[in-house]
């Protein structure tokens, strides 16, 4: 019968502990972004458009997008990285998590822009593959279309 000590030293337990720590930092980073979004919207709207009521909504809408969230995470990371080392390791670890989040989110957005049209083309072809038209006989491999004697196509000499 395994003891408690054996269970705590088991590789699966160590993996779960490591993953739980990573998840906790990721959760802390996500919550920090959510926590700072609204106060930042208020601050920016007060300074960028004090007389424009729609400015607050525009800023809030932008910061709620994927790009805005990634930008906010990156800016928070810069702020945390600038903290003195006397604050301990937590700000640096959280800054790293936010940097990785911002990079991953922006990378995902760029990949979506590049791969989106390709996904649409693939989906279009896969949807109607049973009814897809057959290629013209001239384009199939080994086709032996007979050409009239003396036609310009028959007298062409291949180059190379």
The main β sheet shows up as:
none
Poorly predicted parts = none
- Secondary structure class reads mainly alpha
Distance between the first and last residues' Cα: 77 Å
Can you offer a commentary on this structure?
- The mean pLDDT is 83.
- It is built from six helices and no strands.
- The protein is 71% helix and 0% strand.
- With 160 residues, the protein is mainly α.
- The protein has helices spanning 4-8, 11-48, 53-64, 66-81, 90-127, 152-155.
- Helix 2 packs antiparallel against helix 3 and helix 2 crosses helix 4.
- It is flat, with a radius of gyration of 30 Å.
Gist of the model:
The protein has helices at residues 4-8, 11-48, 53-64, 66-81, 90-127, 152-155.
Main features:
mainly alpha; 160 residues; flat
Task: Describe the secondary structure blueprint for this structure.
Layout: H1 4-8, H2 11-48, H3 53-64, H4 66-81, H5 90-127, H6 152-155
């Amino acid at each position: 019968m395994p003891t408690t000590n054996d269970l705590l030293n088991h590789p699966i337990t160590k993996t779960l502990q490591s993953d739980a720590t990573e998840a906790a930092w990721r959760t802390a980073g996500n919550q920090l972004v959510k926590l700072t979004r609204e106060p930042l919207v208020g601050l920016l709207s007060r300074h960028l458009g004090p007389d424009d009521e729609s400015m607050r909504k525009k800023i809030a809408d932008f910061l709620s997008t994927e790009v805005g969230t990634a930008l906010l995470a990156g800016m928070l990371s810069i702020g945390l990285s600038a903290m003195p080392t006397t604050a301990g390791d937590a700000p640096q670890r959280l800054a790293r998590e936010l940097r990785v989040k911002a990079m991953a989110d922006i990378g995902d957005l760029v990949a979506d822009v590049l791969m989106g049209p390709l996904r649409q083309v693939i989906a279009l072809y896969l949807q109607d593959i049973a009814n897809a038209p057959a290629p013209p006989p001239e384009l199939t491999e080994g086709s032996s279309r007979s050409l009239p004697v003396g036609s310009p196509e028959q007298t062409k000499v291949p180059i190379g």
